[in-house]
Amino acid sequence: MEFLELILVLIALLLIIKKPQKENLAFSLVLIAWVLMVFLYFGHKSSNLLSTMNL
């Protein structure tokens, strides 16, 4: 899952560099990646919402 988050951020970065008019889409991708990271962190730390396996 961490790899997916990094790929989303990389796509957002490339989108900003190649097509600056798509800045809103790139910002949305970064927000999605950030929310996914926060969800996985809190899900793992609080009451075993996610198992101990490596996602």
Describe this structure in words.
The chain is mainly alpha-helical and 55 residues long. It contains 2 helices and no strands. Helix 1 runs antiparallel to helix 2. The radius of gyration is 14 Å and the shape is elongated. The N and C termini lie close together (6 Å).
Strand content: under 5%
Q: What is the 3D shape?
A: elongated
> So how many helices?
2
Mean pLDDT: 80
Rounded to an integer in angstroms, the radius of gyration calculated over CA atoms is 14 Å
Distance between the termini: 6 Å
Structural class computed from helices and strand pairing: mainly alpha
Biggest sheet descriptor: none
Order of helices and strands: HH
List the uncertain runs. none
Helical percentage: over 70%
Total number of β-strand segments?
0
Question: Topology of this structure?
Answer:
Elements (H helix, E strand, L loop, with lengths): L1 H17 L4 H23 L10
Helix pairs in contact: 1-2
Sum up the structure in keywords:
73% helix, single chain, 55 residues, elongated, mainly alpha
